[in-house]
Amino acid sequence: MQDLNQLSRYLSLILRHKPEAAGISLDEHGWADVSQLIDGIRRSRPFDLKTLEEIVRTDQKQRYSFTDDHRLIRANQGHSVPVDVELDQLQPPEFLWHGTAERFTPSIEAQGLLPMGRLYVHLSSDPDVAVTVGARHGKAVVYRVRSGAMAQEGIPFYRSVNGVWLTLHVPAKFLERQAGR
Ligand code: HQG
């Protein structure tokens, strides 16, 4: 029995960053053909439609979506390859949260938050989620982002279908480092 989390991570790699790892390509909206994807993954490990459907259904962050007919699949957000996943532009809440590692803070406080390897800066509406995201990179530090003030200055915000908030750049003046996080 393969570890579904491990398979989900491999699926993320293919659908967000490196479709060529499975010998497939994504269309302009990030969709991959499900049967080509399954064939591509099968080149390196056992895999079938039932397993794919189970990953999509059980993924804790709801990272993937099928089309209604289950012929196409895409990652909901998190891409580094340039695709347009038709994000909803929305008015953000007054504050959002970003977790990072202590060692990145001098650069963040000089340049603001940048998308780095991805298409967008990722923000959460939940400070506890931000702690977990930051801890992936090292000793976690959490910033409160003055998203309401940013929106008032005309900076667009998007929300992916799994609830992650995205924007292109958070200038440092909108960041408030949280004590003790
Ligand atoms: C940092 C996960 C230096 C940024 C999570 C972060 C998230 C800077 C790192 C999603 C910087 C990029 C994304 C600057 C930002 N100088 N470092 N100016 N601006 N950074 O992994 O936000 O499980 O690309 O703080 O839950 O950590 O994959 O972004 O530490 O939603 O679905 O550069 O990935 O979701 O790291 O995580 P990442 P992230 P999944």
What does this molecule look like?
The chain is of the alpha+beta class. It is built from six helices and ten strands. It has helices at residues 4-17, 34-42, 49-58, 105-111, 127-135, 147-152, and strands at 32-33, 64-66, 72-75, 88-89, 96-101, 121-123, 140-145, 158-159, 165-167, 175-177. The strands form three sheets. Strands 4-8-9-6 form a four-stranded antiparallel β-sheet, with no helix packed on it. It has a three-stranded antiparallel β-sheet with strand order 1-3-2. Helix 1 crosses helix 3 (49-58). The longest helix has 14 residues, at 4-17. The chain is elongated. The mean pLDDT is 96. Residues 61, 63, 78, 100-101, 104, 107-108, 111, 113-114, 116-118, 122, 133, 137, 164 line the site of ligand HQG.
- Strand percentage lies at 15-25%
Low-pLDDT windows of residues: none
Number of helices: 6
Q: Terminal Cα separation, in Å?
A: 38 Å
**Small molecules held by this entry:** ligand HQG
What's the average pLDDT?
A: 96
Largest sheet: 4 strands, antiparallel
- Secondary-structure element sequence? HEHHEEEEHEHEHEEE
Neighbour order of strands in the largest sheet? 4-8-9-6
| Computed CA radius of gyration, to the nearest angstrom | 17 Å
Proportion of helical residues: 25-40%
> Quaternary state, please?
single chain
**What general form does the structure show?**
elongated
Number of strands: 10
| Secondary structure category | alpha+beta
